[in-house]
Amino acid sequence: MEFFKVVSPEEAMASVRGFSPLPSEEVSAFDAIGRILAEDVRSPVDLPDFPRSTMDGFAVRAADTFGASESIPAYLDLVGHVPMGEAPSFGVGPGQAGRINTGGMIPEGADAVVMNEYTSTPDQATVEIRRPASVGEHVLAVGDDLKAGELILAGGARLRSQDIGAFSGVGIISLKVHRRPRVAILPTGDELIDPRETPRPGQVRDINRFSLAAAVIEAGGIPETEDILPDDLDTIKERLADAVERADAVLISGGSSMGVRDYTVEAIDSLGEPGVLIHGISIKPGKPTIIGRVRRGSVDKAVVGIPGHPVSALMIFHAFVRPILGQLSGKTSPEAALETGIPALLSRNLPSAPGREDLVRVKLERNGQGMIAHPLMGNSAMISTMTAADGFITVPLEQEGLKAGTEVRVTLF
Amino acid sequence: MEFFKVVSPEEAMASVRGFSPLPSEEVSAFDAIGRILAEDVRSPVDLPDFPRSTMDGFAVRAADTFGASESIPAYLDLVGHVPMGEAPSFGVGPGQAGRINTGGMIPEGADAVVMNEYTSTPDQATVEIRRPASVGEHVLAVGDDLKAGELILAGGARLRSQDIGAFSGVGIISLKVHRRPRVAILPTGDELIDPRETPRPGQVRDINRFSLAAAVIEAGGIPETEDILPDDLDTIKERLADAVERADAVLISGGSSMGVRDYTVEAIDSLGEPGVLIHGISIKPGKPTIIGRVRRGSVDKAVVGIPGHPVSALMIFHAFVRPILGQLSGKTSPEAALETGIPALLSRNLPSAPGREDLVRVKLERNGQGMIAHPLMGNSAMISTMTAADGFITVPLEQEGLKAGTEVRVTLF
């Protein structure tokens, strides 16, 4: 007796593709850290906009140093010292040199810098050069770092410290980033109470509302948690309809009971096209997952029915909700870390039913050779198996299990 | 002519060990995401505190199902349906069964649950069981998830979504976490201007103040940026003294000119013991790094003189400042990802001078076999080589370079 039509994880993934990036908003470059850039940004100026020294030393004409060596140094006339932050008041003619510090402006006529290490100043008016310089050596030419009009960063990139630095270097102090996805979280379950309350027999404190909200924050979204919904079709319909208008994605968690699962399906379908696309995935944990989409204007809102078991809830979040939030955030490519995971050797045989994808929590341990992944067993109702885990591995649908010693890739939490 | 005594990266690392975790503060579990737990947290209660079903099905006495099969099912009297969130009003005696949903409370007398899949109800008072249940099957016993007094999470852990979930499940709604490190950032350099301004000849827009502040945020700290300091010993001394009192760590960036490097050393030493420990590291980029410590009470404040080149500044932050902030944050172990990096194959030969550690920026590319790391060359004065990079690899001191095709580990930015 099957209660729903189970599809492959691949089919389920297909149902969470094609969400449009959210509109952009303008934020100060400083507040943009970790946000997703909404448009290509090009440099408005050349960086640097004057030739700069990259070393402490002497600005010279390279030709004057050709053949210079420890035994036969070149001697040049020291004609000045380039002040920092100003154009030098002197030029460097044939046979001349100017003292310069890192970042200083190369004087007119000079085309290279000789590092202090290869020089000495026998008197205040002379510099001894013990090594030849090539043209352009230790000089950052105009636009060497960034040329006016050159792409600094493409839209869809997650902004990191160096990007903020590059923008400040060319005078860009505000940026267009995609709005963060707002994710409504609707907990259901007549057995649930707020964690602050003391459970009566048969009651349990709500876990998923809090762990899912935290997971939304970790994924760069803004959680909007709601009070616990009763197992009642009309209430679920009404609150779901409201959440779909307000939020960019809706997670309806639980329904431990079969009744609520049916209500969730009916409620999602009542909100409009295309409605429920997936009801049941051949994945463990998380089989009774529901994935729906509801169109509002030209935009699809995701509505995901998250299984009630706390482990299932978070694993389904990682597998299907994170990719949705990534698309809404406008991210063009998943981060390399998430894509590939940490390589580790499996500590023991891991059986798995063929025809089902297993997401197995693991604890990582470092030994002499590298990382060892210890699978954590235990029921998906047990949140403690998640707090003990460093990440998870995926045993694909077609595989009957993995042998001890297999190299696996661990996706970190 | 050497301007400072260069030490190995290993010696430099030794100088940034032994910083004490900052004091703790109490925050709501919800605000604790990503923060570092300041004490071991044990469960105040058993979770669950009543035996629960982990499946939709029928609560039975396992003994009544022994030998049940498709061909010879067991027939039990259906005596009730367990309501969600309440203690069942009935017990399960020999030959009896009660309908139960996932999360429901196991009735007195029952010791197993048979999944719906292996049952049918020929009439309203009878349930047919087609598979034997073992004692405890599909039952979460009292304390199976967490026992009262059991450790949920050890101090020093970074709090993740599942941890927040586990705490809410046992009624813990506020947590002691380490205070975030406050990091003062003092930019120096007479050539620097605020990014909002238009540079005159010889002037450049400040990069490091912004990229370092962003890096502090990425590392979980709170940046306190200051106005650009002039290259003046008294001002540097005064502002540094002030920053050391106020902040947990101080980054004094730049001093492109040798003068400021000397001033920085003198200013750090003037603040008290132990003063400057490192002045120059055999690392590229970042050789002219200064590492000092200043004791205040029983606590050491880190004072790091960060090289002025924007690439050097961020790489030295990753190599030496992040570890300091990790210790101040109270983190007990580095995250697995940072420790091991993403495996990739080097796309081409990478020369490196022996006796120097090279931090080489790379761009990652996925091909059929896995990840390829393309080294990005270019001067450490060019921030654009950092915006193009996905991460970096380390070529150790003793190595003369790496051959194309070598497996490397990429630390992501």
Chains forming the largest contact: A-B, 110 and 110 residues
Secondary structure: helix percent of chain A: 10-25%
CATH class of the largest domain in chain A: Alpha Beta
Distance between the termini of chain A: 35 Å
Number of domains of chain A: 4
What's the total number of strands of chain A? 28
Structural class designation of chain A: alpha/beta
CATH topology of the largest domain in chain A: Molybdenum Cofactor Biosythetic Enzyme, Chain A
* Percent range for β-strand residues of chain A: 25-35%
Please give the oligomerization state of what you see: homodimer
Spans of at least 5 consecutive residues with low confidence of chain A: none
The main pleated sheet of chain A reads as: 6 strands, mixed
Q: How does this structure look, described?
A:
2 copies of one chain form a homodimer. Chain A is an alpha/beta fold and 413 residues long. Chain A has 4 domains: 9-22 and 180-332, 3-Layer(aba) Sandwich (Molybdenum Cofactor Biosythetic Enzyme, Chain A); 24-43 and 154-178, Alpha-Beta Complex (Molybdopterin biosynthesis moea protein, domain 2); 52-140, Molybdopterin biosynthesis moeA protein, domain 3, CATH 2.170.190; 337-412, MoeA, C-terminal, domain IV (Beta-clip, Beta Barrel), CATH 2.40.340. The first copy, chain A, contains 8 helices and 28 strands. Chain A has a 6-stranded mixed sheet with strand order 7-4-6-5-9-8, with no helix packed on it. Chain A has a 6-stranded mixed sheet with strand order 16-13-17-21-20-18, with helices on both faces. In chain A, β20 (290-296) and β21 form a beta hairpin. In chain A, α3 (208-218) packs parallel to α6 and α4 (233-246) packs across α5 (258-269). The longest helix of chain A is centred in the C-terminal third of the chain and has 20 residues, at 310-329.
